[in-house]
């Protein structure tokens, strides 16, 4: 089969790799119908996050079960399924508590020795604990497939950030970051009943999506100017809930600075250069909470799935460029150059 591999910074290739096969009774093999490129993949593409030459990549996909191991009870060949970006056994204490990303037997797609989502097929460990079944008729609905793909990562991650930030009905929310996760954070905040949502971003094509998703205000400034703008919009108080979806020192400083006293920051931006971005004394003095981290998307999919299926939420607009498998290297280039927001891959 063919799959995307990374060999060096900016060196993405689509190559022949061994076909995935059932190795353990709990495995399933999934033929990929839809995958995509994540903003976090760009850290490897840019050389910030180390990868071994030839390593697989991609952690968002949905597809059709081609084969299920003898120990798999919940799925059979022909089932349409979506995979969260981390596999998990579904039986450990952490899985039982909903923190599937801490499963001792879990792992990330594209990690050394595992298949990546940006290919024709994937071996799925612990299929019963990892995969979520989708309605069979969605396989023939192009728009629905695209919306459902967002459940593999960005929609669940935006939801995780909104929960971490304590978004409740009637609250004021600010969202730092206009990437796909930040935009899904806007959508998640709207779904949870936020009354006012301030989207922070400088790209009108992205802030237009934020407005579509429920943003009531847009702040295009950065740094101190952005903090002043949010404070002005909130009578000087700041936002009850702040979603941080970037992961840099500047974004974290901004997030804390625009949080209302007694409020919370829900952070899901993969940290890069943010080690000194927090002033704990300031957070202490103002009773600002910090919650978030890697999103246990597998826990959220069953909750979010019905709303996607009935159209209550539609995250599909975050995908603004579609490529075939051969076009994946160009897709990385487009996202790196910010000419694309999020690239949809049709193997």
Features:
single chain; 347 residues; alpha/beta; 7-stranded mixed beta sheet; 6-stranded parallel beta sheet; 12 helices
3D structure, described in words:
The chain starts with a strand and ends with a strand. The protein has helices at 41-45, 93-96, 127-130, 142-149, 154-164, 180-191, 204-213, 223-233, 249-257, 280-286, 297-309, 328-336; strands at residues 2-8, 11-16, 28-36, 55-56, 61-68, 80-83, 86-87, 107-108, 121-124, 132-133, 172-176, 196-200, 217-219, 239-244, 259-267, 289-292, 321-324, 343-346. The protein is globular and about 60 Å long. Helix content is 30%, strand content 25%. The mean pLDDT is 96. The longest helix has 13 residues, at 297-309. Strands 3, 5, 6, 9, 10, 17 and 18 form a seven-stranded mixed sheet that branches. Strands 13-12-11-14-15-16 form a six-stranded parallel sheet, sandwiched between helices. It has a three-stranded antiparallel sheet with strand order 2-1-4, with helices on one face. The chain is an alpha/beta fold and 347 residues long.
């Amino acid at each position: 089969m063919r799959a995307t591999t990374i060999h060096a910074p900016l060196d993405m290739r689509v190559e022949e790799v061994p076909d995935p096969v059932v190795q353990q009774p709990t495995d399933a093999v999934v033929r990929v119908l839809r995958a995509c490129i994540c903003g976090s993949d760009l850290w490897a593409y840019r050389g910030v996050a180390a990868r071994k030459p030839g390593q697989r990549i991609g952690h968002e996909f949905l597809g059709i079960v081609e084969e299920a191991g003898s120990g798999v009870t919940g799925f059979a060949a022909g089932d349409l399924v979506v995979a969260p970006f981390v596999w998990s056994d579904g039986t450990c204490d952490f899985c039982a508590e909903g923190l599937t990303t801490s499963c001792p037997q879990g792992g990330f797609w594209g990690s050394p020795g595992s298949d990546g989502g940006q290919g024709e097929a994937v071996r799925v460990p612990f299929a019963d604990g990892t995969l979520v079944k989708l309605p069979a008729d969605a396989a023939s609905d192009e728009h629905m497939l695209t919306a459902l793909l967002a459940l593999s990562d960005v929609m669940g991650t935006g939801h995780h950030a909104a929960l971490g930030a304590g978004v409740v009905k009637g609250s004021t929310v600010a969202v730092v970051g206009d990437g796909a996760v930040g935009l899904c954070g806007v959508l998640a905040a709207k779904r949870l009943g936020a009354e006012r949502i301030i989207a922070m971003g400088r790209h009108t094509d992205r802030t237009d999506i934020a407005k579509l998703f429920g943003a009531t205000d847009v702040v295009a400034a950065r740094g101190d100017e952005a903090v002043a703008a949010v404070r002005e919009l909130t009578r000087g108080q700041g936002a009850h809930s702040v979603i941080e979806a970037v992961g840099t020192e500047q974004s974290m400083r901004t997030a804390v600075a625009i949080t209302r006293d007694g409020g919370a920051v829900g952070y899901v931006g993969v940290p890069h250069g943010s080690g000194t971005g927090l002033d704990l004394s300031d957070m202490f003095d103002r009773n600002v909470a910090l919650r978030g981290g890697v999103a246990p998307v597998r826990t959220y999919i069953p909750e979010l799935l019905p709303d996607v299926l009935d159209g209550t939420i539609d995250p599909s607009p975050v995908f603004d460029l579609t490529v075939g498998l051969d076009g994946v290297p160009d897709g990385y280039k487009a996202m790196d150059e910010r000419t694309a927001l999020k690239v949809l891959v049709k193997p």
